[in-house]
C-alpha cells in the first residue's frame, strides 16, 4: 500500500510545502535517486493524484487510498495526517523544553536554562510551519471545512504558549542566583510532573482521539491547583519573614512565583487543547466563557 511507504510520505511532504519544480529537486532534497522518486510517484501521477507540476489533489488521494488503509480512521485524510504528525512532533518538543527548563531549576544550572530557551526558537518555527501548512492546504484544496482545519492552528498556538511559559521557568535560573529550598522544590517537582501529564493527555486526545483521557487530565489539574496553593502559601510565609530592605530576596520571590504560575498555566492550556480535541473529533463546541470565570 503506497500510503504506508514512509519515503513516499516524505516526498509528498516536500511537494506540499516546498513547491519543487522537478523530480530532481525532490530527490536532492531527500537524498534519493531521481529514479526512485519516479518509481514511487508514478502510480499517483498515473491516477492524476499528483499533477505533473507536482501539486497533490488531496481529495482524490483520499478517495483512492484513504479508505484502503486500516491504520487510518475514516475521518482522517492525507492533509490531516501530515499536519497531525507536525503537531505531535511539536508537542514532544515542547515537553522536552519544559523538562530541560525544570532540570535547570533542579541543578541551578544557567547553561541548561540557556539551552532550554534556545529550544523555544524551534517551538516558534514549528508553530509557523503548522500555520503555513494549514494555509497551503486550504489554498490548494478548498473542499476542506475551514473551521475544522483551523483548529490545527489553535492547537499549535497553545503548544507555543506552553513553550513561552517554559521560558519563564528557565529565566528564573538566569535572572536569580538563589537556590530553591528543598520543601518548595519538592512541590515544584509535583507541579512539573502534573504539567507533563496534562500535556500528554491533551496531545493524545487531539492526535489520537482519546477523549476518554479528559478525566485523567482534570485529575492532574486538580492536583496542580492543590500544589500551586501550597507553593504560594510557602512563598508568602517566607516573604513575611524577609525584610523589605532585602531587594535581592524580594526579586527571588517574584521570579519563583512566576515559575509556580507557569506550571499552573501549562495545565490550563492543556485543558484548552482537550476542548479543541472535543470540537475537532466530536463537533462539541468549546465553552465561550473563559475558564477562569467558570468556577
Features:
single chain, 295 residues, mainly alpha, 10 helices, 0% strand, elongated
Main beta-sheet annotation: none
| β-sheet strand percentage | under 5%
End-to-end Cα distance, whole Å, is 50 Å
Give the ordered list of helices and strands.
HHHHHHHHHH
- Count of β-strands: 0
Instruction: Give the overall shape, derived from the CA principal axes.
Output: elongated
Please give the count of helices: 10
Structural category? mainly alpha
Return residue spans where pLDDT drops below 50 for at least 5 consecutive residues: 67-76
Share of helix among residues?
Answer: over 70%
- How confident overall, as mean pLDDT? 84
The value of Rg in angstroms is 23 Å
Give the topology, please.
Blueprint: H1 6-18, H2 23-30, H3 34-46, H4 58-65, H5 78-107, H6 110-140, H7 146-175, H8 182-208, H9 214-240, H10 247-282
Protein architecture, described:
This protein is mainly alpha-helical. Helix content is 76%, strand content 0%. It has helices at residues 6-18, 23-30, 34-46, 58-65, 78-107, 110-140, 146-175, 182-208, 214-240, 247-282. It is elongated. It starts with 5 loop residues before the first helix and ends in a 13-residue tail after the last helix.
Short synopsis of the structure:
The protein is mainly α and 295 residues long. It has helices spanning 6-18, 23-30, 34-46, 58-65, 78-107, 110-140, 146-175, 182-208, 214-240, 247-282.
